[in-house]
Amino acid sequence: MENLLNVALAQIAPVWLNKKATIEKIENTIEEASNNGSELIVFGEALLPGYPFWLAYTEGAAWNLNVNKELHAHYVQNAIQIEAGELDTICALAKEKSIAIYLGIMERPQDRGGHSIYASLVYINAEGEIRSVHRKLQPTYDERLTWAPGDGHGLQVHPLKKFTVGGLNCWENWMPLPRAALYGQGENLHIAVWPGNLHNTKDITRFIARESRSYVISVSSVMAKSDFPKDTPHLDAILNKVPGVLANGGSCISGPDGEWVLEPVVDKEGVLYQTLDFNKVYQERQNFDPVGHYSRPDVTQLVVNRERQSTVVFKNEQP
């Protein structure tokens, strides 16, 4: 039925900073979700190839420390170049299984020189096409030591059966204007991706749902001290300070009324399943619609720049 959407929340750990092995784990998870009837699967922020957990424990802001330089270089080398076809096998699987995917990656884009990395949220439709790549607008706190700030190009929504789906990365979800940019395009299924932890998802998930009168899916990864690979550069320095659990999950779903459809799940790796009923969106828009009957565009409007930013623009190039 067009009104119903079967969704899967992939609360999994990466094979940390190993893009080849993490891609294989992602593909196995997509297979599992498809076999269970899912039409959309969501993975956490920066899952491919992992979140930069070392920054808080290795004096990440100190100048010219080899530990940070070498970890950063290792991170960049395991980031994803979409232009080089590094998501092609995932796209092919999406097409084969007729499943849409939201995937958090570390992107190393050629249009910004190929050396800086961005926390990007990629939407792949059920035909296996990459329809948007949203680079996180503002990395949070110590993330700024390794991630670059993105642009508005990926502030886009997509049709998925009766739903209109869009998404943001982590603390971007606290930014009112990017949320409004998605609402204004008709979003009624909001995807919020996180590196992990209940403290991130337990409040904002229901808040966005109540504000937008939309479904909100929050998906977090999990990560334990034991998940660090043995070949990680400066592993001893990292393990000396990190806690036993770095990301405990907290993946969840709120309905358009702001109540839980799926309460946060913590300390558990696996795939969570739920069916969403589109009719609930219309029911809750009856008394409040933030960009429709309860808006005043004659008083306040949002202007969005969706141009993909690049340092160099070549003019009058010869073919």
Oligomer: single chain
Q: What's the order of the H and E elements?
A: EHEHHEEEEEHEHEEHEEEH
Sketch the major β-sheet.
Answer: 7 strands, mixed
Relative strand content: 25-35%
Low-confidence stretches: none
Shape assignment: globular
Instruction: Give the class from helix and strand content and strand pairing.
Output: alpha/beta
Q: Can you count the beta strands? A: 13
Number of discrete helical segments = 7
Q: Average pLDDT value?
A: 96
Estimated radius of gyration: 19 Å
Q: Distance between the terminal alpha carbons, to the nearest Å?
A: 49 Å
**Helical residues, percent:** 10-25%
What does this structure look like?
- The protein has 319 residues and is α/β, with parallel strands linked by helices.
- Helices cover 23% and strands 26% of the residues.
- It has 7 helices and 13 strands.
- It has helices at 19-35, 66-77, 88-97, 176-183, 198-212, 235-239, 279-285, and strands spanning 4-11, 40-43, 100-107, 118-124, 130-135, 158-160, 163-169, 189-194, 215-220, 222-224, 245-254, 260-266, 270-277.
- Strands 6, 7, 8, 9, 10, 11 and 12 form a 7-stranded mixed β-sheet that branches. The protein has a 6-stranded mixed β-sheet with strand order 5-4-3-2-1-13.
- Helix 1 packs parallel to helix 3.
Characteristics:
319 residues, alpha/beta, 7-stranded mixed sheet, 6-stranded mixed sheet, 23% helix
Write the layout of secondary structure elements.
Layout: E1 4-11, H1 19-35, E2 40-43, H2 66-77, H3 88-97, E3 100-107, E4 118-124, E5 130-135, E6 158-160, E7 163-169, H4 176-183, E8 189-194, H5 198-212, E9 215-220, E10 222-224, H6 235-239, E11 245-254, E12 260-266, E13 270-277, H7 279-285
Parallel strand pairs: 1-2, 2-3, 7-8, 8-9
Antiparallel strand pairs: 1-13, 3-4, 4-5, 6-7, 9-11, 10-11, 11-12
Helix pairs in contact: 1-3
